[in-house]
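User: I'm preparing a small set of examples for a lab meeting where we compare how different chains pack in three dimensions. I only have the primary sequence for this one, and I'd like the structure in token form so I can line it up with the others. Please keep the answer compact; I'll paste it straight into my notes.
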Amino acid sequence: MASFVTQSVLNFFLIISLFQISFAGRKLSEVVQDQPQLLTYHNGPLLSVRITINLVWYGKFKPSERAIISDFVTSLSSSTTPSQNNQPSVAQWWKTTEKYYHLTSKKSSLSLSLGKQILDENYSLGKSLKNKQIVELASKGDQKNAINVVLTASDVAVEGFCMSRCGTHGSALSSSNGRIKAKRYSKFAYIWVGNSQTQCPGQCAWPFHQPIYGPQSPPLIAPNNNVGLDGMVINLASLFAGTVTNPFGNGYFQGPAEAPLEASSACPGIYGKGAYPGYAGNLLVDPTTGASYNAHGDNGGKYLLPALYDPATSSCSTLV
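Assistant: Understood. Below is the structure token output for the 320-residue chain.
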């Protein structure tokens, strides 16, 4: 069974991305601060070698919306880099996670690729989902050497969504031979992220929507002109980082195992240098649209990605 950890409001200064990971997550109310402590390795397995990312689309998503996510996924391990002026890229952002692998005795590596995309546009399980149904949906993807990502549409309610989390990551028992084998069973890793566009953009899509609490500075323009999907990218990016470095609750994390901080959640509310409560940091701005972002991706995509905890410097690392 997957382990879900509910996050609560830390304080009223800032709601940044209400965003929860099954083993750790960015707090509903995030305070901008660097974490000086190095995340501790708890001797568990990390996802390694070639991992396929399967996307399970639950509910109605336009093709253009699916492209935002799928292009982001392919950008994580893109072999091409932006040619103009050494622009920061999604692949460059992802390289910070590789440093965690270099610290382990096994010195393993990770390669990601986009796998299957499964569409469930008819809401086969209804429009109100429990945690166990998220696992059921995640199980539709291949379970060997994979991360199965469940993406729920804006009209789908999920247990805990908007009240304590915007997404989660965890592991579940595999119905077939999984990547990590134990004596009697194997597990596969999964992620869930919801589209907050109509339910709680102030909680799950900051800084592209004004937060419910804290400093009320004007929201930034979303790079893909889609507050819900651009918010999903932020949460998905953080969950990917947490999943590969702490897939089964015994990898890299800080604090108690029931509610730890992970590679991204250790750096809440930071997207660029100079970030502080209510301010995401010094970001790149598209001169035509006025949209804010910090990473370039495949097919001309632009994204806003959260800071990651860099184990080499024991500090939060940003692209810009």
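A couple of notes for your slides: The chain has five helices and 16 strands. Helices lie at 63-76, 90-103, 131-138, 201-204, 227-245.

User: Perfect, thanks.
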